[in-house]
Amino acid sequence: MSSVVLELRGVSRQFGGLRALSSIDLNVSRGETVGIMGANGAGKTTLFSLIAGHVPPSSGDILIDGKSILGLRPYEICRRGVGRTFQTVRPFGGLSVFENVLIAGRFGTKRRAMADASVRATALIEAIGLADRAQAKAETLTLSAQKRLEVIRAVATGAHIILLDEVLAGLTPNEVREMLGVIGKLQKDYDLTLLMIEHVMRALMEVSNRILVLHHGEAIAIGDPAQVRSDARVLECYLGKDE
């Protein structure tokens, strides 16, 4: 059985006269962390939106565990095993932390019984260090805590592929380290495959097995962090020739 859990085959997306993504090919293996790098407008979030089903590709195909997901709605793709976070956190602000995670567990890949979903929610909340805030309303949390909640809601669905969209943005250096520790623990404990959009380059280089670099909707490089750092086109476009 193939270890590839996500495949993009010639995926493009056109918005009117603007081509946001052009012929993207990518295979992601189980347990891998793939960083997505690029300037604002490079097509990173559009890529996530295509995988999660929020917008359809104009051409190409996307496969999860060897099966095409074209035409499926976002909730159907979630139940195929894809969980997503957003650049702007989106908790149910008036509900508690526990209720936020419980709802995700009930919604996700399995129709979990309430007791099972409750146990899972409690374990996830403890894993990210929010046990003492489990009954607090999500809107009262700090940005760092809301971002951690966003991550575990995606995991709570039972997804094995998690799309992390700038979960480090706005965090202090200490909070960045804490978040990376949380993500690493969740990946190990729940056997997750991660795709991670991030502008904190040092962190992205540290955690990624491979990095896909987008520039104006085109994939200009893919490889391990050392390869990407030394790629001439990446240096010219993003890192600066003196890097």
Summarize the structure.
This protein is of the alpha/beta class and 243 residues long.
Summarize the structure in words.
This protein has one domain (4-91, 157-239): P-loop containing nucleotide triphosphate hydrolases (Rossmann fold, 3-Layer(aba) Sandwich), CATH 3.40.50.300. Helix content is 38%, strand content 26%. It is built from nine helices and ten strands. α5 runs parallel beside α6. The model has no long low-confidence stretch (mean pLDDT 92).
| Major sheet | 6 strands, mixed
Give the strand content. 25-35%
Radius of gyration: 18 Å
CATH topology: Rossmann fold
Which keywords apply here?
243 residues, single chain, Rossmann fold, 6-stranded mixed β-sheet, 4-stranded antiparallel β-sheet
List the helices and strands and how they pair.
Elements: E1 4-15, E2 18-29, E3 33-37, H1 44-52, E4 59-64, E5 67-68, H2 74-79, E6 82-84, H3 97-107, H4 114-127, H5 143-156, E7 161-165, H6 173-190, E8 193-197, H7 201-207, E9 210-215, E10 218-223, H8 225-230, H9 232-239
Parallel strand pairs: 3-8, 3-9, 6-7, 7-8
Antiparallel strand pairs: 1-2, 1-4, 4-5, 9-10
Helix pairs in contact: 3-4, 3-5, 4-5, 5-6
